[in-house]
Amino acid sequence: MPSRGPSLEDLIGIEHSKLGFFQELRQTIEALKDANTQSAQRRREIAAILDGITDIMMVLSSDLRILSVNHVFRQTFPETPHPEGLYCHEIFCGDDKPCANCPASASFASGDICRETAIFKIGGRNTQFEMVASPIHRPDDPESHILVFKRDVSREKEYQAKFFQAEKMATIGMLATGVAHEVNNPLTAIFGFAEGLRRRMPALKEKVDPRVMEDVEDYVATILLECRRCQDIVTTLLTFSRQKTVSFAAVSLNAVVNDTLKLLRSHLKQRTQAKITVRTELSENLPKVHGDEHQIKQVMLNLLVNAMDAITGPGRIVITTFQSSEGVVCLSVEDSGCGIPPEHADKLFEPFFTTKRSGKGIGIGLSTCMSIVKKHQGDITVASVPGHGATFTVKFPVNTDTTT
């Protein structure tokens, strides 16, 4: 018997089955389209968030190779359009080994978020960065990666340094005012009584033993001399600390040196006992500079204190004033201390950069000096041989105002 073909019911069932399959397929395709649309929208949202980040952002491998960067990195290093595969320290330090205190290395080692602040030379200028390194944990990827953010805080550090310096000077000014009131009153009384004794000594000469009278005259003269010296010290301290409007006039660098040494006389005497000698070589007939005496004294004070701090044993400090062949007036402070390592030479004047141990300074002295000197249209240069000392030279334009 010939085989019987599919019945009508069978054909209808097959068509219904096909129709159901295509409906499910269409629903699946629609769902995939929706998911793809949502994924693309999500990717755009993430891209917009990343574009809104103004910090340098990098993803590093365990050997500190760059895997990916954001647009800020590319804007900061336009000369490196394809940084992927390069080492992080190659780009930021130009070195073939990781940076000291690298937060990425510390984060890899500890598995925690690590923070650090460092100075890098980018585009010909020193830039301070706050860096945050955070581990990236992905269950589907056994290799660990690190996400690094670098935020430029150079201007913020500069403002902080100015604030700390202003706060320090305000505190010194307040203390100096108190010292002046507390010291000047008894000092005036001592000076007055000593002067009274000096005036009465001629009447006592015939009534007192000559040897005793000679001692009394010597004592009175010494009291008067030391009273005048104390008055000079208080006046000089007030000059350094008084908060006043910046006023440019003709300033003698030789007078600045002498006033600063007078203020530090006691401290220098202690260092002299430690076999540190201080010598001055001040040029005669030195032209005056156009500037603010109060601020120039701050520069001299900072340089001299730094020179003393750089010497740990016997040594010498030489303070020199002269006029260079270019016509500028120069003040140099030379010490025989520990010197400056070459890698630190271009960072000395950055706010909060310091090589001193904790408690000896916070790194705003030299940055303040540079700021003051730049306001005076001058410059500071440093020459140093590690282990053999350093010489800081400040250059000021000559005062050309003939009315002062």
TrEMBL record:
Coiled-coil blocks: none
UniProt catalytic activity: ATP + protein L-histidine = ADP + protein N-phospho-L-histidine
Entry keyword set: Phosphoprotein
Annotated organism of origin: Solidesulfovibrio aerotolerans
Protein's name according to its UniProt entry: histidine kinase
Any GO MF annotation of the entry: phosphorelay sensor kinase activity
One Pfam family, short name: HATPase_c
This protein's record includes keyword Phosphoprotein: yes
Residue span(s) of domain Histidine kinase: 178-400
PROSITE patterns named among the record's database cross-references: HIS_KIN
SUPFAM superfamilies, alphabetized: ATPase domain of HSP90 chaperone/DNA topoisomerase II/histidine kinase (SSF55874), Homodimeric domain of signal transducing histidine kinase (SSF47384), PYP-like sensor domain (PAS domain) (SSF55785)
CDD domains: HisKA
Enzyme Commission designation: 2.7.13.3
